[in-house]
Amino acid sequence: MASVTLLGVPYDAASSFKRGPSLAPKRIRDELWSAAGNSWTERLVDISDSAVLADAGDVTFADAADSAAVRRAIEDRVERIVVAGSRPLSLGGDHSVTYPILRAVHRTHPALTILHIDAHADLYEQFEGDRFSHACPFARVMEEGLATRLVQVGIRTLTQHQREQADRFGVEIIDMSAWAGGARPVIDRDETVYLSLDLDGLDPAFAPGVSHPEPGGLSVREVLGMIHGLAGSFVGADVVECNPTADPSGVTAVVGAKFVKEIAAQMHLQGHR
Question: Please, what is the Cα angle at 125 between 181 and 90, to 5 degrees?
Answer without folding.
Answer: 70
